[in-house]
Amino acid sequence: MRKVVAGNWKMHKDRSGATDLIATLVAAKSGLPSGVEVIIAPPFPFLALAVEGVKGSAIAVAAQNCHQAAQGAYTGEVSAPMLASMGVSACLVGHSERREYFGETDLLVAQKVKALLEAGITPIYCCGEKQEERTAGRHFEVVSAQMKDALGALDPEQLMKVVVAYEPVWAIGTGLTATAAEAQEMHAFIRGLLRSHGNDVANAVPVLYGGSCKPDNAAELFAGPDVNGGLIGGAALDADQFLSIIRAAGDS
Ligand code: PEP
Question: Which residue's alpha carbon is at the smallest distance from atom 6 of ligand 1?
Answer without folding.
Answer: 233
